[in-house]
Description:
The chain has 263 residues and is α/β, with parallel strands linked by helices. It has 2 domains: 2-117, Methane Monooxygenase Hydroxylase, Chain G, domain 1, CATH 1.20.58; 124-262, Rossmann fold. It has helices at residues 2-37, 43-81, 104-118, 138-158, 174-183, 201-210, 224-235, 252-262; strands spanning 124-129, 162-166, 188-190, 216-220, 239-243. Helix 6 (201-210) packs parallel to helix 7 (224-235). The longest helix has 39 residues, at 43-81.
Amino acid sequence: xxxxxxxxxxxxxxxxxxxxxxxxxxxxxxxxxxxxxxxxxxxxxxxxxxxxxxxxxxxxxxxxxxxxxxxxxxxxxxxxxxxxxxxxxxxxxxxxxxxxxxxxxxxxxxxxxxxxxxxxxxxxxxxxxxxxxxxxxxxxxxxxxxxxxxxxxxxxxxxxxxxxxxxxxxxxxxxxxxxxxxxxxxxxxxxxxxxxxxxxxxxxxxxxxxxxxxxxxxxxxxxxxxxxxxxxxxxxxxxxxxxxxxxxxxxxxxxxxxxxxxx
Length: 263
C-alpha cells in the first residue's frame, strides 16, 4: 500500500506541474488577446506581442515535457500496481505543441484546436459498467478477472476503434477495465457522479453514457443503477454484453435461452 501511495504521488507531481504550466499559458493567452486588440502597427506593440507569443510557446513546451514525464511515470505505476493512474480531479490529457505559430491569432486558434482535440475521444464508444465485488477465494477473484479481460478483448476484436466509457470508480471493477484500456492504448471517457444530484446521480450518469450511442454496453454485476443501465440500453436497441452471472459469465437464464435455441 505504501508503494502504491508513493507511486501515485510521484505521478501526481508531474501532473500538477503540467497543470500549473497550462494555467500560466492560459494567462498569457489572455495577454495575447489584449495585445491583439490594442495593436496599432507600431514597432513596440508588435515586439511586445511577439515576445508574449514566444514566452507562451516556451511555457507550453515545458508543459508538454511534464506531460510526457507524467505519462511515463503512469505507465510504470500501472505495471507495478496493476492499477490505472487517475488524477483526484480534472482530466488527464496532453495538449502537445504545434510548431510554426506565425502570429497571435494563429496561436490562439491552434491552442483552442489542441484543447478541443485533447478532450474529444476518437472512435466508437463502448460502455463498461459494474460495481464493487468481493470474492470468497483468490482463485475466484482470478477467474473473474480472466473472464473480464477476455470479454474486453472479445469486444475489442469486434470494435477495433473503440474507446471505453465508464464511471471511473477506482475501488470497483471499473479499475480493472481502466487498467486494461491503459495497457492497450485505448482512450477512455470517464463520467463521474454529480454528487449534487444525490440518489439521482447514478441514473443521470447512465443517461449521459447512453447519449453517446455506444456500440455495446458491457455489464457486470452491480447495483440498481447498473440494472437500469441494462434496461435502458435494451430499450434503445443497444447491444448488451451481459456478464452479470457468477464470476463474470453470462447469466444462467441467458445461457439457458441459448441452449433452447440451439436444440
